[in-house]
Amino acid sequence: MPYDSITAARRQDLRVLVGLAAGIILFPAVVLHIAPLRHYVDIMVFVGIFSLVTLGLTLLMGYAGQVSLGQAAFFGLGAYVSAILTGRFGWPAWPAVLAGMTLTGLVAFLVGVPSLKLKGHYLAMATLGFGVIVYVVFNEEVSLTGGPSGMADIPGIAVGPWQMDTPLKYYYFVWFFVLVALAFSLNIIHSRVGRALRSIHGSEVAANAMGVPTASYKTRIFVVSAVYASMAGSLYTHYMTFLSPSSFDLFWSIKFLMMVVVGGMTSIWGALLGTCLLTYLSNEWLHMFHDFDVLVYGFILLLIIMFLPKGLIGVVRRT
Amino acid sequence: MEHFAISGQVVQYAMTGLTVGSIYALVAIGFNIIYNVTEIINFAQGEFVMLGGLFMVFFATVVHITLPLAFFLTVVAVTVIGVMMERFAIFPAKNASVLTMIIITIACSILLKGAAMYGWGKDPFSLPPFTSRKPFILLGAAIFPQSLWVLGITLVIVFVLTCFFKRTRFGRAMIASADNREAALLMGIDVKAMVMVSFGLSAAIGAVAGIVITPISLMEYDRGALLGLKGFGAAVLGGLGHFYGAVVAGFAVGLIESFCAGFISSGYKDAAALLVLLLVLFLRPSGLFGSVEVMKMKEF
Per DSSP, which regions of chain B are E strands? Predict the structure, then answer.
């Protein structure tokens, strides 16, 4: 790609980012004036939290071409470290968040070094297995995690003197981090590292031959994706103030993967679209189907993947 | 006496492990059949087991027909579902990447689970054992006749499948489509039909697994995911695509679980088998019987 078009792509991404920021600032102003849509701000908090996870997963899957079915475990590690340190040991929230991110990054490094030597289905199985093991630990270490019945009364989080205690405050709080993560991710994508990652996706052998240290890049992006998920987990904890292991099981890892694929994993914006659609579907729009909701959810997923194999972002790009 | 008691316990756990392991082996074989022809991991494989169990409950305890007939009708019903899944979801997306195909199978599994929840509700169902309920004592362990049914039927299926793939024209055609799609097409093999058959066959084997295990462990609509996970683990542990690898690994996963539950902690039994699996993968990246050379040639 010539130098000019790289900067052009970068400039376009920056324009989208600024547009998104404006949209995020204005969104509550619109929905809070429409009574039946008021709680959309609350749902958008979850969209933001899950977006942090799927942004990391897109970097890993869409750009570096490595599958992970264990993202819910990293999400859970961040959540539980925050919850345990603040709830049981009386730590202030921010050091706990950082401790969670550090610990999760370390775990991701230790798991990633041997796992990322695996390919395709074997890598999928290894990450899946890791995810289930962590989930079992959440369930079994009752003295720390509260076991299957979970942990309650986890303190909230404050920025300076301001307590983030309403959905609206938390909405701006979470989306601030999503925008920072987006800017950081865009920097990775449009840099030497991003090009190296895409070369691994294209052909690992060729990338190696061109002098790209593939093993090291794969591990680093795996750690980055885990740290994003951990951050998301901490934000989730302090918003919910209640945790149970069921939010971090195998199905959630699969859900994060589906968000990325439904949105279109070749683009970082796809992750946002997919997360937004699937979160609104399962948290809001499918409630009217009652017991049918799982059925309708599966059906919608099937239709999207079958007819839009490039994901939602494919439609946006075409128009 | 102490020594005797412990050996009885070991036999007991081993038997439990082999029984559950049979089911994992059957699920793993189901994964392998589809993987061999298409390179797809069918995440709905566990749902076939669940549907096998629930349809059997329907035919045997609601319709009240004889066991062999119920068995047959259940296998037919689940096979039809497997073939329909291929026709309506996999076949139309034939040009999609492997990852997209896998997501399609995940969507199908959600769909099947949702349908089963609607059809059977959320409660677990029981099924009477095929023969006597009374356990007999062997080497100090109480063994249920149904466990022998599970083991026996698994071995029969492995034997019949081996004959099918080695001896029959059709089986060999399936192997050929798996080895080299283009060459198989040039030899006049209808590869598309083989893909459909592979889904039907996997569904049928899943159904049998569900039928034989339901009298022991009950069955409910959301059991598929965990069974699929263990089966996938066994398939990977044995080396994807290897039938005997799948059987050995299935039994190994079952035994590790059962001994962990018996001697260490029942809560950690799901983690124990996966931990062993991870360690094996770190040492042998293509499973116990898989070949690294073959793996490098795979697209995904």
Answer: 136-138, 141-143
